[in-house]
Every structure is written in structure tokens, then in C-alpha cells.
User: Which sequence fits this backbone?
């Protein structure tokens, strides 16, 4: 099947839709390609799979395993697998809490190369989510194949991660073919072309192709400074934290999981000059009282850091309101920020609104966790990001393992599970290094626990983590 026939068949089955459509990237598009309808046209589906298979085979060596991005690309990958007797693995959108509890299903071994199959790409976010989970399972990804490249930055973004994108057709070729076939009238064509021009990824010509006198264009700025992001933040605590980080030149938070109040206070005073945030679990302190909170607030004021109570609220709005404001701990009176799970839905945020209007405190949504087998993945993570965007006055940021494209610069991204020794522990905790999460994964604040508070010289160790994380931040700016 040639491209002309492909486009004609896609149009016949209403896979090409015109109107106003919100893409996963958040962009509103006047044209939408819905390849989910191909499951009702098995011959066309198998032809599409064959075109994609041949495209990869022509451009490079074919990886021995295929994996479709859920869900639209799963039938395409299956058709490809059956037609060529190529083994397939399947990535779940979320791990189950029963059976094998695996994210990646199928037979494979560490080091196997996998071809990622997707229907189309805009920003590349869905592909990168699948690649992340495949890599976490020990698999290697070098190539990605799609039917359609919308030409809105995915190719360049995937290339940054060492991935080669193969596409059967581009959006430009699709529009050109539809026009030649008389399937787009002039007003619609003008609208679509205007959209494509406004959203097309910018490519810089090679130096040899540029006029000698033309100055090289400046690359787009990928990361803003903490000072710049403080001005963008819509939650006052997020703005305050960005400014503290910039002023103190530290993006280190320390988790103090000690069980005696004097131990917590001594450590806080010792390392306070090196940190931007102190993270507590007050419900594990055996001798907790309000005097402890009063002393902790004084130390925080003395050293200019914020107090983060990692309560992980996860109930209905009315219940979390009482948990936050009342009870033994009266968390709302002293914590600058708290964590919440989003399992109860966005209504949970309403339970905090009255208090945070008074205090300016910030909520941190648990988008991802550092424990092995965490269920905070895939669609759950996407929903947490969307919940944060819809409530950016109350939500100051996310607990996450990486900066995803949909995370805006007005949010603080905090990553737990940091140690120079990244081997993990016997209870499923997985560790990453400061350089990896700040420079490579693009998050903002590293959260270190046992690596500091269990060290015989916690302040000197805190200085090491502070310097490493700040150096990684400065490196990514450059």
C-alpha cells in the first residue's frame, strides 16, 4: 500500500477528523488523527503494521522484540508481531497489586533491545513514559516507529534521549495528500496550515548551509532559574521556596525520620544552614508536644528553611480538613507544605482551602514515588499533574522522579530516594544520585534521609549533598 492509498483509506474510515481537539500536550488542534478506529478494519490495520515494520527494516536493523504504547498502538504491535513471528512484550499503564505485579509483561531478559511502536507522536511524552518503564525493567530501546509524525517536536525530544524515530508519514505529507485528493477545502486547508506553521518544531540549518554573515541563532532556553520561576509560581509557598533556594544556593531537603524530638531539633539546627526544606513525620515522634513545634519553627526562622510535614493525606475533603487543622498535631499552624495522594480526586484539595488561604501553605501532589513497584505511574501520574494545574493556587508542586513535559515551571518538583550510594535497601526503596535527578531528570529539590541523618557527621554530609545538587542545577542551566 502506497501513501496515497493509505491516506485515502484513513479518510474513508473517519480516522482523519477536522474540528477543535485538545491533544495530550495541551495544544488545541484543528485536525485530529484517530487511529483507534483501525481496529474495526483488520486488513487496513495489518497493512499499517506492515508499512511500519518495513520502515524500520529499511532505515536500520530491526530490534528482536516489539512493544506497543498502550493503548492504541497495541493492536498495531500485535499485528506486526504475528506477521513476522517477532516476540512482543506489553507495558501496562499501571502495575497490578496481585499476580506478578509487573509493569512489563512477556518473556525477555535484561539487555534485550525493544522496538517501541506508537500510532503517532506530537511531543513524544507517551513514548518516553513507555521507554522509562522498559528501561527500568532492564530492557534497551534505541528505535521508535510511528505511523504519523505530527512534526511538533517529538523527533527532536526523542533524539535527546538517544532514540531514533521512524515515521511512515509526516503531518505535512498527510495534509499535502489530502489536498491533492480534494478532501480539504480552502478555508480548512488555510486553518490547518496556519496551525502547523505555528506549532511546527523549529529546526536549525547546518552551519555549512547558513549564509556566512548570518549569526547563529540562540538555542531555546530549556530551564529557567529558580529566581525566574519564583515570579511564575501561583502558590505563595512555591514562590518563597524558589527564592530561598536562590538566596541560599541550596536545593537540598532533608527527611528527618527520627523518633525523639530532641534528636530532630539537634539535627535541624546542625544542618539548617545547608538546606531549603526540612521534612518531618511528626506521628513517629514518641515525645511529641507543642513545645517541639515551637522550637522547630524558631530553628527554621533562624536558618531560613521551610518545614515540610510528609503527612500524605488521602481521605475525603471533610476528613482531611480535620486531620490538617485539628487533632494532636494541628499541622496547619506550623507546616509550610504537606503531601497529599490524589486517589480521592480533586475534591480532597477543597479540604485544605480555608487553612491555606490564611497561611499560604502549599500542597505537594504525589505524582511518582521512589519505592519499587509503586502504583503511582502512567495515567495516575498524568491525572495528578492535571489536578495540580487545575488547582495551582493551592498546589505548589509534585513529589516525582522526573520532570515530565506536562509539568509547568510554576511548580516545584521534589524527588525523594537520593543517596550517593544508589543500591537501594531491603524494603523496596530505590536510590538515585543528586546529579542524575537534577541534571538528567530535571527535578528541583533532592530529598535525602538516611544518607544524612544516619551519618556520624551529618552536617559535613549535608554539605556534600548540597554542593552536588547545586552543581547539577547550575550544569543543567548551561
Assistant:
Amino acid at each position: 500500500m502506497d501513501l496515497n492509498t493509505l491516506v485515502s483509506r484513513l479518510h474513508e474510515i473517519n480516522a482523519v477528523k477536522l474540528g477543535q481537539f485538545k491533544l495530550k500536550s495541551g495544544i488545541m488542534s484543528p485536525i485530529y488523527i484517530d487511529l483507534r478506529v483501525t481496529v474495526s478494519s483488520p486488513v487496513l490495520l495489518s497493512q499499517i503494521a506492515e508499512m511500519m515494520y518495513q520502515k524500520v527494516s529499511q532505515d536500520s536493523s530491526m530490534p528482536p522484540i516489539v512493544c506497543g504504547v498502550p493503548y492504541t498502538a497495541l493492536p498495531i504491535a500485535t499485528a506486526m508481531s504475528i506477521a513476522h513471528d517477532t516476540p512482543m512484550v506489553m507495558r501496562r499503564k499501571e502495575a497490578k497489586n496481585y499476580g506478578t505485579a509487573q509493569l512489563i509483561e512477556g518473556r525477555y531478559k535484561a539487555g534485550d533491545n525493544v522496538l517501541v511502536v506508537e500510532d503517532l507522536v506530537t511531543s513524544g511524552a507517551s513514548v518516553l513514559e513507555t521507554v522509562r518503564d522498559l528501561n527500568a525493567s532492564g530492557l534497551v530501546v534505541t528505535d521508535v516507529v510511528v505511523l504519523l509524525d505530527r512534526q511538533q517536536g517529538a523527533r527532536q525530544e526523542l533524539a535527546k534521549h538517544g532514540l531514533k524515530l521512524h515515521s511512515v508519514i509526516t503531518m505535512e505529507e498527510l495534509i499535502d495528500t489530502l489536498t491533492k485528493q480534494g478532501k480539504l477545502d480552502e478555508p480548512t486547508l488555510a486553518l490547518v496550515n496556519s496551525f502547523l506553521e505555528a506549532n511546527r518544531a523549529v529546526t536549525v540549518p547546518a552551519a555549512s548551509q547558513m549564509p556566512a554573515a548570518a549569526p547563529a541563532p540562540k538555542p531555546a532556553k530549556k530551564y529557567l532559574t529558580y529566581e525566574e520561576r519564583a515570579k511564575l509560581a501561583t502558590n505563595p509557598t512555591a514562590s518563597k521556596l524558589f527564592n530561598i533556594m536562590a538566596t541560599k544556593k541550596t536545593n537540598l531537603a532533608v527527611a528527618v525520620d527520627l523518633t525523639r524530638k530532641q534528636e530532630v531539633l539537634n539535627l535541624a539546627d546542625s544542618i539548617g544552614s545547608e538546606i531549603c526544606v526540612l521534612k518531618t513525620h511528626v506521628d513517629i515522634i514518641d515525645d511529641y508536644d507543642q513545645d517541639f513545634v515551637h522550637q522547630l519553627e524558631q530553628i527554621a526562622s533562624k536558618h531560613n528553611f521551610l518545614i515540610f510535614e510528609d503527612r500524605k493525606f488521602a481521605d475525603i475533603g471533610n476528613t482531611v480538613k480535620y486531620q490538617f487543622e485539628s487533632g494532636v498535631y494541628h499541622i496547619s499552624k506550623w507546616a509550610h507544605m504537606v503531601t497529599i495522594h490524589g486517589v480521592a480526586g480533586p475534591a480532597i484539595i477543597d479540604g485544605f482551602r480555608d487553612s491555606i488561604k490564611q497561611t499560604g501553605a502549599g500542597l505537594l501532589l504525589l505524582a511518582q514515588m521512589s519505592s519499587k513497584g509503586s502504583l503511582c505511574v502512567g495515567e495516575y501520574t498524568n491525572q495528578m499533574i492535571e489536578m495540580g494545574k487545575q488547582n495551582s493556587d493551592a498546589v505548589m508542586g509534585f513529589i516525582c522522579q522526573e520532570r515530565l513535559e506536562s509539568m509547568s515551571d510554576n511548580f516545584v518538583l521534589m524527588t525523594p530516594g537520593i543517596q550517593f550510594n544508589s543500591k537501594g535497601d531491603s524494603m523496596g526503596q530505590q536510590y538515585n544520585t543528586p546529579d542524575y535527578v537534577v541534571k538528567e531528570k530535571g527535578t528541583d529539590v533532592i530529598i535525602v534521609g538516611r544518607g544524612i541523618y544516619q551519618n556520624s557527621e551529618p552536617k559535613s554530609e549535608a554539605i556534600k549533598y548540597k554542593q552536588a545538587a547545586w552543581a547539577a542545577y547550575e550544569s543543567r542551566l548551561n
Observations:
- The mean pLDDT is 87.
- The chain is about 40% helix and 20% strand.
- The CA atoms of residues 265 and 296 lie 6 Å apart.
